[in-house]
Specification:
Pfam families: DUF4301. InterPro entries: DUF4301 (IPR025393), Nucleotide-diphossugar_trans (IPR029044). This is DUF4301 domain-containing protein. With 509 residues, this protein is an alpha/beta fold. Helix content is 35%, strand content 18%. The protein folds into two domains: 415 residues, Spore Coat Polysaccharide Biosynthesis Protein SpsA, Chain A; 82 residues, no CATH class. The strands form five sheets. A nine-stranded mixed β-sheet has the order 2-3-19-13-16-12-4-7-8, with helices on one face. It has a three-stranded antiparallel β-sheet with strand order 1-14-15. Strands 10-18-17 form a three-stranded antiparallel β-sheet. The chain is globular. It starts with 5 loop residues before the first helix and ends in a 5-residue tail after the last helix.
């Protein structure tokens, strides 16, 4: 057992943690986490559904005709530091005696050359040029390119790298710049029009709350008038009770210069607690940086149609689950038992042997997620797989590369043979057959966390990441994968991504 100092115990209590919880986290550093046993990639007609035109229309109609309450859940925590990491490094070591191209080559950043040739196409370019008295022609010269980026990042300029990613301007429509935050509001309005109310929940960092409040207050009246939709927007913070202890590489407790322990946010899996606070019947989940809105484009209408269809599919399967739970509770005859078992096998690949109605209800009555998957075109990240569980079940799961045993050639090949990418949209139901909200922590696979190598002020440390929101955090949910159009996937991991075609196409020149 670890001997905590009196001050440690106070710090643990203030974090809404317990010594037992911290001790358990320390054991995970020693024991590690097991790897996942992939049976094969999920592919079309083997774990991934496709919708033809008739099915698409049917499930859209199911959604449009439903009166179920709904909410869009958007993880939007933190500043946009990673988006500008390479540019920060460039400026930090910039040699003004050399050309921009030479500096890029010296720092191994040749891929940024195209970015600097197209600065004027960034959504905030006009604002910066106005502030610096620059013309578009000026941006052809190295000194002005560097001046432009310096102003974008400097605390006396736009300070974009310390701005929440949600509040970074992503696209320009005529003379209007829209942030990712605003784009999500527009997108939610597009598939909430028939109910005339769009409810959204953003998880943010507490220190950024006032910034979101200012933006929302500035735009809400105009937005509601333009879309004819009433918006209900609320926010939550990642709870510090989900933070985990940090250790040194020799597995001793890390302490700062004042002798205090360090507790770190435990990854996006910690947001499961935020998701667990929602009470709507349907929840749409989408990352803050994956958005491309333009009401004039047919592609946007297609994206909206697929979101509605995913929701309609979720409603249809949840209705069947509720039907079987009710029938097994009230009329548990052999025909109902047979049909319920067949439904579980056909829908979720669960070959159930039990004939006990109560056991069947417990297997049926779980949270349900319908995940929109795009084809993998080379982006880094995980994807959909059939996973072998210890009890022999094969279930659909989302698996990251860090979760598999890369020393096993068979496992590595399964991962490399994957055809599709992590979910770009998720629609889920988190209420049981009686209409009560599940405790989502009951459906987590705690063995799907991982140990992350981090640093504090240049000092290397280890931290624990909780099971990810849509892999280990949802491991024991019912899962359906559905192929959605490639255009649904528009992530912005780097500021240079805003110059890619699928973001530039939406700009009205």
């Amino acid at each position: 057992m670890t001997k905590f100092l009196t001050e440690d115990l106070k710090q643990i209590k203030n974090h809404r943690l317990t010594p037992e919880k911290v001790e358990n986290d320390l054991k995970k550093f020693e024991e590690g986490f097991g790897t996942i046993n992939i049976s094969r990639p999920a592919t079309i007609n083997d774990g991934i559904l496709t919708l033809d035109a008739n099915q698409l229309k049917h499930f859209i109609d199911v959604y449009n005709n439903s009166t179920l309450s709904r909410c869009k859940f958007v993880p939007a925590s933190g500043a946009a530091t990673r988006m500008f990491k390479d540019l920060h490094n460039l400026l930090k070591a910039y040699d003004h005696k050399k050309s921009l191209v030479e500096n890029l080559i010296l720092q191994g950043l040749e891929q940024w050359h195209s970015f600097f040739e197209n600065l004027s196409r960034l959504p905030f370019a006009k604002s910066i040029c106005n502030q610096l008295n620059l013309t578009e022609e000026d941006l052809h010269h190295d000194e002005h390119k560097v001046e432009f980026i310096t102003y974008a990042l400097d605390e006396n300029g736009l300070h974009l790298s310390q701005t929440p990613k949600a509040l970074i301007p992503f696209h320009t429509y005529q003379d209007k710049c829209l942030t990712a935050f605003e784009e999500h509001l527009y997108e939610a309005a597009a598939y909430a029009k028939h109910q005339q109310t769009a409810k959204l929940h953003f998880t943010i960092s507490e220190e950024h709350q006032s910034k979101f409040d200012v933006v929302l207050n500035e735009i809400i009246n105009e937005l509601e008038a333009e879309t004819n939709v009433k918006f209900e927007v609320d926010f939550s913070y990642q709870s510090n009770s989900t933070d985990t202890i940090a250790i040194n590489l020799d597995h001793s407790l890390y302490r700062d210069k004042n002798g205090k322990l360090l507790f770190r946010p435990a990854g996006h899996g910690a947001l499961l607690e935020n998701l667990n606070q929602l009470t709507t019947d349907l929840i749409f989940i989408k990352n803050i940086d994956n958005v491309c809105y333009n009401p004039e484009q047919q592609t946007q209408q297609t994206n909206n149609d697929y979101k509605k269809a995913l929701a309609g599919l979720c409603i249809s399967f949840k209705t069947k689950i509720n039907h079987f739970c009710k029938a097994l509770n009230q009329h548990p005859n052999q025909e109902v038992i047979r049909e319920a078992k067949q439904f579980l096998n056909d829908s979720f690949n669960l070959n159930i042997s039990t004939e006990n109605p109560e056991e069947l209800i417990s297997i049926l009555d779980k949270p349900l997620r319908v995940c929109g998957m795009v084809k993998n075109e080379g982006d880094p990240g995980g994807g959909p797989f059939w996973v072998q569980f210890k009890n022999g079940d094969e279930k659909l799961q989302i698996v990251e590369k860090s979760q598999i045993n890369l020393d096993c050639s068979k496992q590595t090949k399964h991962f490399e043979d994957s055809t599709h990418f992590n979910p770009v949209d998720i629609v889920c139901s988190i209420k049981n057959a009686e209409g009560k909200t599940f405790n989502l922590q009951d459906f987590v696979d705690d063995n799907q966390g991982f140990i992350a190598n981090k640093s504090v002020d240049g000092h290397p440390i280890k931290g624990l990441e909780l099971p990810g929101l849509w892999n280990g955090g949802m491991a024991h949910w019912h899962t359906l994968f559905v192929e959605v159009p490639q255009q649904s996937f528009n992530p912005v991991k780097s500021i240079a991504d805003l110059l890619k075609p699928h973001h530039q196409e939406c700009v009205e020149v």
